[in-house]
Design brief:
It is a single chain. With about 210 residues, the chain is mainly α. About 70% of the residues lie in helices and about 0% in strands. It contains ten helices and two strands. It has one domain. The protein starts with a helix and ends with a helix. It has a two-stranded antiparallel sheet with strand order 1-2. Strand 1 and strand 2 form a beta hairpin. The mean pLDDT is about 85.
Length: about 210
């Protein structure tokens, strides 16, 4: 076995059970339950907030332009900087490589469902961002810290429900693992595949090292 094959085999033993669980299909179908979960959540938020992703799209543009920016507000980045940071972590990984994989597996029609899922998912993202701002910590020096780990622990406590801190810790751990696998390894693997297609196959660790 080559080094690449050994690495793949090692990671497969660890990630295999998680992948099989997350992408497990409904009995008798090839439809993963996680896809239904995302669609149902996005649909519920879209209906509950009254098509917020469409009604307030103009307001979102105004926020990015800085029409509502106040230098005295808490925070370390502007609205545009926050958008640019979010896009830098998704464009390329999801919008380029992800689309190519989806079209390769499901055909051109996959792009329609990806666009529809993206539009519906905007309501889920709106909900996440709202909760993140509501339950974030603001410090005297103007810095802030927030995110799902904060609104899980604080939100559950506010509702009198247990398990908020446990979920927050689990999310933080999964986020670290996701940053290693989805954020770095996936992109390095895609880069290696493109270069290998031009110059011929070579050890993948060279791309990772570069």
């Amino acid at each position: 076995m080559t080094i690449d094959q050994r690495v793949n085999a090692t990671f497969a033993t660890v990630t295999g059970p998680f992948v099989n669980f997350i992408f497990a299909p409904f009995p008798g179908t090839a439809f993963p339950w996680i896809v239904l979960w995302l669609v149902v959540a996005a649909s519920v938020f879209t209906v509950y907030f009254g098509l917020v992703q469409f009604r307030f799209f103009g307001h979102a543009i105004a926020l990015v332009k800085g029409d509502y920016s106040d230098p005295k507000d808490a925070g370390e980045v502007s609205h545009f900087q926050a958008l640019a940071t979010a896009l830098s972590g998704t464009v390329g990984l999801g919008n380029i490589a992800g689309v190519a994989v989806a079209v390769g597996i499901g055909g051109p029609g996959a792009t329609f469902w990806m666009i529809l899922a993206g539009l519906m998912g905007m309501a889920s993202k709106f909900t996440e961002c709202t909760l993140g701002v509501k339950y974030r910590n603001e410090y005297d020096d103007g810095t802030v810290s927030g995110g799902p780990m904060y609104y899980m622990s604080k939100g559950f406590k506010e509702l009198g429900l247990p398990g908020g801190k446990v979920l927050a810790v689990m999310f933080s751990v999964f986020c670290i693992l996701g940053a290693l696998g989805g954020g770095n390894m996936f992109q390095a693997n895609q880069a290696h595949a493109q270069i290998a297609g031009i110059v011929g196959d070579y050890p993948g660790w060279i791309t990772g090292l570069i």
